Amino acid sequence: MCPNIERPVNVAPESISEFISQCSTHTVRRGKDMAGFYIEEPDEDSVIYEVYELESSGHIKLAVTIMKQGKAGNEYFMTKGHYHEDERAGEVYFGLKGKGLLLLQTKEGQTDEMELTSGAAASIPPGWAHRSVNIGEEDFVFLAVYPATAGHDYGAIEKHGFLKRVVEMDGKPRVV
Question: What pLDDT does 54 receive?
């Protein structure tokens, strides 16, 4: 059983396995779960990413995401991406391992992107959809911290998509 977040929790690169072993909330996204998100569909049985969430009855939630290294066609593996149901909710990511790129956008069409590596942090303001992309040579692992009441709105992204994609061009990741 996953411990309650009211107990102190330490999540560091060397303790990821310990954190994961304590969590009962585990989501696996395979290629078949990502149909329609890529230009070329990934192998339906490929694991694209996994999310381990720590249960909380408090005000914040913690989740570790492990993004696999790989591509669907020339597009780097990515998360579905989401807005928060509570539009006042922001989120903070802490890079634990690997190298990723965060794609961000507002409903009004403003976009941004930022790199996230081990030891770095990124703040995602309220109202911004966010998607993580593994642009490295190994798994990209990060810790997310967000309000327990934030909720996840995947529907808007499924319907309208993201305005930008990350593809390999000349052997390097490019935002297009």
Answer: 84
CATH number of the structural domain spanning residue 166: 2.60.120.10
86-90: long-range contacts at Cβ-Cβ below 8 A with a sequence spacing of 24 or more?
Answer: 86/147, 86/149, 86/150, 86/151, 87/126, 87/127, 88/126, 89/126, 89/146, 89/147, 89/149, 89/150, 89/151, 90/123, 90/124, 90/125, 90/126, 90/146, 90/147
Which pLDDT does position 98 carry in this prediction? 97
Predicted structure pTM score: 0.91
Q: Give 15's pLDDT tier (boundaries 50, 70, 90).
A: confident
Q: DSSP string of 42-103?
A: PPTT-EEEEEEEE--SSSEEEEEEEEPS-EETTEEPB---BB-SSTT--EEEEEEESEEEEE
Q: Give the mean pLDDT of 133-140.
A: 97
Computed over its alpha carbons, how large is the radius of gyration of the chain? 15
What residue numbers bound the domain in which 63 lies? 13-175
What is the count of structural domains for the chain?
A: 1
